[in-house]
Amino acid sequence: MIYSKEVIKHFKKPHNQGVIKNADSVGQVGNVTCGDVMKIYLKIDDKGPKSKPGPLIKDVKFETLGCAAAIAVSSALTDRVKGMTLEEALAVKKDDIVNDLGGLPAPKIHCSMLGLEALHKAIKQYK
Ligand code: FES
Hints:
This protein is of the alpha+beta class and 127 residues long. Helices cover 41% and strands 20% of the residues. The protein has helices at residues 5-12, 68-81, 86-90, 94-100, 109-126, and strands spanning 25-30, 37-45, 56-65. The protein has a 3-stranded antiparallel sheet. Helix 1 crosses helix 2 (68-81), helix 2 (68-81) crosses helix 5 (109-126) and helix 4 packs across helix 5. The chain is globular and about 45 Å long. It starts with a helix and ends with a helix. The structure holds FE2/S2 (inorganic) cluster. Residues 31, 34, 36, 66-67, 69-70, 108, 111, 114 line the site of FE2/S2 (inorganic) cluster (FES). FE2/S2 (inorganic) cluster binds at residues 31, 34, 36, 66-67, 69-70, 108, 111, 114.
């Protein structure tokens, strides 16, 4: 399987990996087929700055037990949604993440869904 340079970069040095101890919400999902598990922690700023009224994602971290693509997706996804309002984050599509990563091999596209599912779960729990 051939991964893009961007996937390898995020896999080797993932951004936003870890736990937010006093998170406002946590979303955890698992893929029954491959067994991978992803957890997204959110710290929410209810008001946000004047220029961008909240609620918005002040901080986001992830823990992923999974394949290289799942880790790269978690890293790219958390980079993308940090600072977004919850509505903006909910509008992020699978293709946005795949493009951020310079593409994913076809059998790994489902890994990008796992990231979005975890994010959506965390946002819905917050709401
Ligand atoms: Fe399951 Fe990547 S193989 S998330």
